Amino acid sequence: MHVLTLTTNADAPFMTQQLAALEERGVSFTTVPVAGEVDADTDRSPTDYVRTVPRVVREAGNGYDLIHAHYGLTAPMALAQLRQPVVLSLWGSDVHGPIAPVSKLSAPFCDEVVVMSEEMRETLGRDCTVIPDGVDLEKFRPEPQDKAKTRVGWDDEDAYEVLFPYSPARGVKNYPRAERVVSVVDNLLKRPVRLRTVHGVDHDAVSDYMNAADALLLTSDSEGSPNSVKEALACNLPVVAVDVGDVRERLAGVDPSHVAASDEDLISGLIDVLERGERSNGREAAREVSIDRTADQMLQVYERVAGTVIETEAGSETRRVEGAAGRLE
């Protein structure tokens, strides 16, 4: 199976991990990113999206089984070609944020829509397939905390280390709330409490920070299925988080960890986690969203939409049938 991938961020770790896992299952990809440069201070312009459309239409004629559009703003360009079925994956901010109307208008015209949580499906208001982004359990695994602290350069042995794994500039992550919570906890506990922001580091190094920290603090205004929570679970790092996206589902049965509805809940939950000083049992919960499991689920979507069953190791015959949208392959 050959898939054309459209994305606003070709380097997104959760997407590249999914592509790699699907390649192991017999899928090949060609990726077309949206034109233009983007960074922390610069967004793409509408012109960048418009000038990407002709390239997508031309590329779509090269014999792909389907088009996989990642993020709501790529859906219109995927739908501009009329030959191949379209899978749309929504990431969270494209359902909750200002571009949500684009996602909602495009979704009915796609052959299948994939969202990260039940909450996203309810917000979108239509039938979807729920597949959270998977976590690599080989890359994210428990390691001794003292060794991890040495690797990341945290040398204050007396301090509690609270991890905020995003750039403070990302407004939706609500860094000021995390600062308020940690400031209060720091004043209430005898040991100092440090809020550590981690962003812009190589994704392979993130597990070191997870293992070095005493807790992960999530204060986002909205989320789909936050990868930082799943990565923390895989490392047995306790999580204190607001009730967004699929956080409550992911933390069900995980101890110590807390889902909070207010600043007071965040403060009391963080104090409990830090004073207990224990790692969580999160790794067992993380197995539900391992990259292997979620890649298998996405492969089923591909097969259903394209009408293609990929040949297995057991040698089952590859077959083509009528696709989901009635296209004969």
Q: Using only CA atoms, what is the Rg?
A: 21 Å
Oligomer: single chain
Largest sheet, order of strands side by side?
A: 2-1-3-4-5-6
Based on DSSP secondary structure assignment, what is the total number of beta strands? 13
Q: Helix proportion of residues, in percent?
A: 25-40%
Order of helices and strands: EHEHEHEHHEHEHEHEHEHEHEHHHEE
Largest sheet: 6 strands, parallel
Q: What's the end-to-end separation, in Å?
A: 12 Å
How many H/I helical runs? 14
Low-pLDDT ranges = 314-329
Which of globular, elongated, flat, extended, rod-shaped describes the shape?
Answer: elongated
Q: Please state the average pLDDT score.
A: 91
Proportion of residues in extended strands: 15-25%
The class by helix and strand makeup works out as alpha/beta
Write a structural description.
- By secondary structure, the chain is of the alpha/beta class.
- The chain is built from 14 helices and 13 strands.
- It has helices spanning 13-23, 46-60, 75-79, 93-96, 100-106, 118-124, 145-152, 175-188, 206-212, 227-234, 247-250, 263-276, 282-286, 291-306; strands at residues 2-7, 28-33, 66-70, 86-89, 112-115, 129-130, 160-164, 193-197, 215-218, 239-242, 258-260, 308-309, 319-320.
- A six-stranded parallel beta sheet has the order 2-1-3-4-5-6, with helices on both faces.
- Helix 11 links the parallel strand 10 and strand 11 (258-260).
- Helix 1 packs across helix 14 (291-306), helix 7 (145-152) packs across helix 9 and helix 8 packs across helix 12 (263-276).
- It is elongated.
- The chain starts with a strand and ends in a 9-residue tail after the last strand.
- The relative contact order is 0.13.
